[in-house]
Design brief:
Blueprint lengths: L5 H8 L5 E8 L5 H10 L19 H6 L6 E9 L2 E9 L7 H9 L3 E7 L6 H12 L3 E7 L1 H6 L5 H39 L33 E5 L4 E3 L1 H12 L3 H7 L4 E4 L4 E4 L1 H4 L4 H19 L3 H11 L5 H5 L3 H12 L2 H12 L8 H8 L11 H12 L9 E11 L13 H21 L1 H32 L5 E11 L1 E3 L3 E5 L5 H7 L16 E5 L2 E6 L2 E5 L1 E3 L3 E5 L9 E4 L18 E7 L5 H14 L4 E4 L5 E5 L2 H15 L4 E3 L6 E5 L15 H16 L6 E3 L5 E4 L6 E8 L2 H9 L1 H15 L8 H17 L12 E5 L6 E5 L11 H5 L6 H7 L4 H13 L11 E9 L1 H21 L18 H13 L2 H21 L3 E15 L3 H10 L3 E7 L5 E9 L6 H8 L7 E9 L11 H7 L8 H12 L18 H4 L1
Parallel strand pairs: 1-3, 1-4, 4-5, 5-6, 29-30
Antiparallel strand pairs: 2-3, 6-7, 8-9, 10-11, 10-19, 11-18, 12-17, 13-14, 13-19, 15-16, 15-18, 20-22, 20-23, 21-22, 24-31, 25-26, 26-27, 27-30, 28-29, 31-33, 31-34, 32-33
Bound molecules: guanosine-5'-triphosphate and magnesium ion (MG).
């Protein structure tokens, strides 16, 4: 198919039924961009010779150099099938784990996805992740099994072996889909049962029928199977690909078999019985060649054998004749046989035809957006769809209709902001002329020339000179003004284009729109704004809502942008003019009833931090601006200024870090910068006292004595001793300096599974905390059944994991989680007689609504100070000021004696003068103390009372005391550091296996398991490596194995470092083993000191204690 004009695309954009919005997803290097090249070439944007080599959608220089995609980019393609025309908005996404946030931004805008799997490597970790992402966003996938040529050329499989191998891959992919599907059915079923039963049923009595729902739910269309038409086998590099429909149609003609029958039997255990001229079942049992091998693979294998392996000219001629394909002489004479192969294949089995036809037939158009998906997009956080305002709920229809009517509300979602050089924007750029324009110019020139000729030979030369001069002058001028402009608009070098999709209405250039921030609440917006208002009216200010105008809209064409006047519903587009209003993503609408879309599911957690500073201190403002731009342009990178004044950049991994640094250096700040070594995060925790010492001898009570000794030491060395008391069991009692309050705290380690559970449930805990907060304020929040279920489940899991005498009733008595109110540490209420409302009150709240007021009364005064102190203590621990993890602080005593007395006094006094007034009832709760006195003399008295007590003082001191008590309690236990760990899966061949092990070992990593991929020489190794040792790990492995193994690292968990950083040899054996200083092997101490040094904390180090010992005696003489 030839090149498509812009007008044609604009025409197609208006018909949503023929639009397909899709992205290409896969594990890294499985061939997404190469496949995209083939599709792009089908539109004549690049030549088919360049397809696969150019990687057109990898437009950044570093993408080309490294050979991996880093940013997702979109292109619009035209495809014609029969007499139907289709517009395909294709987004190529990166496969490297560091850039998985880019995948999230792509998936959100699409209705379908092409999942690419490498035929040799099969299903890899990222394949699972992208399938899950597609699933979570409710978009439909189709499968392309790519690189089949590798089975022929590299692995030298026979067609039969290849068939078995392909079957296995298909099974693997379907197994993932199966798991996802089952879990969703279960979830839905549980939700349904819950709704049916209402929430009154006590939870314990429910009986779940595990198979319920599964039988009736039809899932056959979800699985990948060649006979369903949702699988293409391809080699994008060699330019071929096919679905079995192609062969079914071909052979049905030749063999006179019904194509539908062939379609059902070409893939599977069927064989051709030549005698009976029948297709029979049971190829495997009877040892026959399956149809797929006989009719499909054999042909491809013999083509490869003739062209690539044997280079047999005669055979090639024969094949060409039988296929009816003609190739150019220069292709057949080329020294590289792959050129000939591509030339043949691109005519015989063009991959673009196979893939695009599958996409158009199997992926849904924007008109088929599922109602379920719409509801999911519209219900933010814990809110239920049916609790949204009515006008908001009505918008669901707008989504479903995908209408481009003038009065349809405009709804657009921006999934990321892309930085584009301002001078590359269409209106700033000279467009290359089209053929028609060139011929027009030529015609004009010819006319002018003819006129000149007519005007006379003499004048001609003068005219020409003037022409040239004036032309030159113009150009010079242009350059000069441009230079001026550039210096003026130094700030404006980068323009942000919003990468977006229209879900309803028509987006127009110059249109006024509302921008809805993620926290915007349509209910609030609707109540504050006049009815039927529009974004162009002057409106009162509403939180998280702003108005602005769309400056330009563009068609995204890979590296290029094409300016458009309007874009109707169902299309992907670029919008200029929103950069001051949108940071990373947002929802745009013309109606304030529109809710913000649910946030993107970003899988990668930014973990690698570096501090950045400019090489020349004067360039700080430029750096700050550059980092701000980077923050906007990258969905995952975070920038922040630490308390120390350092500018910190947080990225998802090493490759991502490098890309961000390059971006700052070369694009956003354009200055030399220096980055610190990556700042490695640690966690601090306590463990149970170890039973053996460092040389594996039984410890008995020794360790305990040593630890207590340590704390006592500290106490006697400085801290006020009067107020602090540590007993032998580790209970720390601390009194505030004003002696008004005392707290006793004990730290105990949480079981590991509990820590993991809390770590994974932080979002849920945060939600619950929010719910509790609103309950305390007396409001009630409607949360979805799913969230409620998750909370119940979390509680049940905690109960089952916290068993034993020590933890009796612990879950009920949880006071708070920390740090940041949702972390993996627990504050436990072990006070006798303090019945504060349970953390889980929402669960028992449901049927007892109206009692919240009563519950609020139970909260003791300064409860909040205790929580704040705990939050502070867990945010930075005593070892090296890193956050705590897996620690439970039990409060065993808490007195605010004198204050209680004072408080009662205050209370009484208040009561007396209120009684005297006879107007106000005695306050029921302490909250009610905010009584405004009505009489001036009363006011004075009231003031006296409040200034007399020292509320501010006590609460402040209590926070500090609680924090200190927690820290001391922490120190009274054996302390350990926890290291962040990466997991990585390394694929490698047997000959370099040893080298891979060597590198993993050197980096303090552990091999978890190793297996051999069936039928191949490839080993898959799964290992964990501490993040602290991971920098340069991937490079080292690549170098050591000459590029044959390259690991991908994903953050997995936190692990306790077994060595005690405070350990000193205490027993004779230890002295013998480690020497007196024992500083040789303490990894934890090294990490801890490095962090302390970085933070400017005191580091206790013995620097060359006995210098004379280092001298050689002989020299001394
Ligand atoms: N043998 C063979 N190699 C292929 C094929 N398709 C792609 N490749 C090669 O695989 C490598 C990776 O291809 P890309 O298209 O960049 O892979 P990708 O999936 O876009 O990679 P990321 O975007 O980094 O995740 C390149 O060296 C390609 O030449 C194929 O069909 N056969
Ligand atoms: Mg790519």
């Amino acid at each position: 198919m030839g090149p498509t004009t812009l007008d044609r695309i604009i025409e197609l954009q208006k018909n949503p039924a023929c639009i397909r919005n899709l992205c290409i997803l896969a594990h890294v290097d499985h061939g997404k961009t190469t496949l995209a090249d083939c599709l792009v070439a089908s539109n004549g944007i690049i030549s088919s010779r360049q397809a696969g080599k150019l990687r057109y959608l990898d437009s950044r220089e570093d993408e080309q150099i490294r050979g991996i995609t880093m940013k997702s980019s979109a292109i619009s393609l035209h495809f014609q099938e029969g007499d139907e025309d289709f517009l395909l908005n294709l987004i190529d996404s990166p496969g490297h784990v560091d850039f998985s946030s880019e995948v999230s931004t792509a998936v959100r805008l699409c209705d379908g996805a092409i999942v690419v799997v490498d035929a040799v490597e099969g299903v890899c970790p990222q394949t699972q992740v992208v399938l899950r992402q597609a699933w979570l966003e409710n978009i439909r996938p189709v499968l392309v099994i790519n690189k089949i040529d590798r089975l022929i050329v590299e692995l030298k499989f026979t067609p039969q072996e290849a068939y078995a191998h392909l079957q296995k891959i298909m099974e693997q992919v379907n197994a993932i889909t199966g798991t996802l599907f089952t879990s969703r059915v279960m979830e839905k079923q549980a939700e349904k049962t819950k709704e049916e039963q209402g929430c009154e049923t006590p939870l314990g009595d429910q009986v779940y029928d595990w198979s319920a729902g599964l039988e009736e739910a039809d899932d056959s269309h979800l699985y990948f199977s060649p006979d369903q038409g949702n699988v293409v086998f391809a080699s994008a590099l060699d330019g071929w690909g096919f679905s079995i429909r192609h062969f079914a149609l071909m052979y049905s003609e030749r063999m006179g078999i019904n194509p539908e029958v062939l379609l059902k039997t070409l893939w599977g255990d069927f064989y051709l019985n030549a005698k009976a001229k029948k297709i029979m079942k049971g190829a495997q049992v009877k040892g026959k060649k399956p149809l797929f091998v006989q009719l499909v693979l054999d042909n491809i294998w013999s083509l490869y054998n003739a062209v690539v392996t044997h280079r047999d000219k005669e055979k090639v001629e024969k094949v060409l004749a039988s296929l009816g394909v003609k190739v150019m002489a220069r292709d057949s004479r080329h020294s590289d046989p792959k050129v000939l192969l591509s030339a043949i294949c691109s005519q015989w089995l063009p991959v673009s035809q196979a893939v695009l036809s599958m996409v158009c037939n199997k992926l849904p158009s924007p008109l088929h957006i599922a109602a379920e998906r719409v509801e999911k997009l519209m219900s933010v956080g814990v809110r239920r769809f049916d609790t949204l305002p009515e006008r908001t709920q009505e918008l669901k229809n707008a989504f479903l209709q995908c209408s481009s009517n003038e009065n349809a509300p405009v709804i657009v979602f921006v999934s990321k902001m892309v930085a584009v050089e301002t001078k590359a924007l269409p209106h700033n750029k000279k467009r290359p002329l089209t053929q028609a324009e060139i011929s027009q110019c030529r015609e004009l020139a010819r006319q002018r020339h003819a006129e000149r000729m007519a005007a006379g030979q003499q004048n001609h030369s003068v005219n020409a000179l003037v022409d040239i001069q004036s032309g030159g002058l113009c150009k010079g001028d242009e350059i000069a003004t441009e230079g001026l402009k550039e210096s003026k608009t130094e700030e404006q070098r980068e323009t942000f284009i919003a990468f977006a999709r229209v879900y309803s209405g028509v987006v127009k250039k110059g249109q006024r729109i509302f921008i809805l921030g993620p926290k915007y609440d349509p209910a609030q917006g609707l109540s504050m704004l006049p009815e039927h208002c529009s974004p162009s009216d002057s409106l009162p200010e509403v939180p998280h809502l702003s108005c602005c105008s769309i400056e330009n809209i563009y068609l995204l064409m890979g590296r290029e942008l094409e300016e458009l006047e309007e874009v109707p519903s169902g299309n992907v587009l670029g919008i200029r003019g929103l950069e001051d209003f949108i940071l990373k993503s947002a929802t745009i609408s013309t109606t304030p009833a529109c809710p913000p879309f649910t946030p993107l599911n970003i899988e990668a957690s930014p973990i690698v931090r570096v501090a950045i500073e400019p090489k020349h201190p004067g360039e700080m403002p430029k750096l700050v601006r550059g980092m701000r731009l980077l923050n906007q342009a990258d969905p995952c990178a975070e920038v922040l200024i630490q308390e120390t004044g350092e500018h910190v950049l947080i990225t998802a991994g090493e490759v991502h870090l490098q890309r961000c640094l390059d971006d700052i250096k070369d694009r956003f700040a354009k200055i030399e910068i220096s980055a610190s070594k990556p700042i490695i995060p640690f966690r601090e925790t306590v463990v149970r006292p170890p039973k053996v010492d460092m040389v594996n001898e039984d410890l008995g009570k020794q360790q305990k004595v040593a630890v207590i000794h340590q704390v006592k030491d500290e106490v006697s060395h400085g801290h006020a001793t009067e107020t602090l008391h540590v007993d032998s069991s580790g209970l720390v009692t601390l009194t505030t300096p004003n002696k008004l309050a005392t707290v006793s705290v004990r730290a105990i380690p949480l079981p590991q599974e509990v820590t993991c559970l809390l770590e994974n449930s932080s979002a849920l805990i945060r939600t619950l905390e929010q719910v509790n907060m609103t309950l305390r304020e007396g409001r009630n929040l409607d949360i979805s059944v799913r969230t409620l279920e998750a909370i119940t489940n979390l509680k049940a899991q905690l109960e089952s994991k916290l068993q034993g005498r020590k933890w009796r009733n612990a879950v009920e008595h949880i006071w708070a989680f920390g740090p940041r109110r949702c972390g993996p540490n627990i504050l436990l209420n072990k006070l006798e007689g303090y019945q504060r409302p349970s953390f889980w009150q929402y669960l028992c709240q449901e049927d007892k609504s109206g009692k919240d007021g009563a519950q609020a009364k139970n909260i003791r005064e300064f409860d909040n100070s205790i929580v704040s102190g705990f939050q502070l203590a867990t945010l930075s621990g005593p070892m090296c000021e890193e956050p705590l993890m897996g620690v439970c602080f039990c409060i065993e005593r808490w007195d605010v004696q004198s204050l209680n007395w004072k408080h009662e006094n205050t209370f009484e006094e208040m009561a007396t003068f209120q009684e005297a007034l006879g107007t106000i009832k005695a306050p029921e709760s302490t909250d009610a103390l905010e009584v405004t006195p009505t009489h001036p003399s009363q006011a004075k008295r009231y003031q006296d009372i409040t200034s007399e007590d020292c509320y501010g003082h006590v609460s402040g001191q209590l926070i500090a005391a609680m924090k200190e008590a927690c820290r001391h309690a922490f120190q009274a236990q054996p302390q350990r550091l926890m290291a962040a760990m990466y997991t990585c899966e390394i694929m490698t061949t047997a000959d370099v296996l040893g080298k891979v092990y060597g590198v993993v070992g050197k980096r303090e990593g552990r091999i978890l398991h190793e297996e051999m991929k069936e039928g191949t020489e490839i080993f898959i190794i799964k290992a964990v490596v501490p993040v602290a040792e991971s920098f340069g790990f991937a490079d080292e492995i690549r170098k050591k194995t000459s590029g044959r193994a390259s690991p991908q690292m994903v953050f997995s968990h936190w692990e306790v470092i077994s060595s005690d950083p405070y350990w000193v040899p205490t027993t004779e054996e230890e002295y013998l083993h480690f020497g007196e200083k024992a500083d040789s092997s303490n990894q934890a101490l090294k990490y801890m000191n490095a962090v302390r040094r970085r933070k400017g904390l005191y580091v206790e180090e013995k620097i060359v204690e006995h210098a004379e010992k280092q001298r050689t005696l002989s020299k001394n003489k």
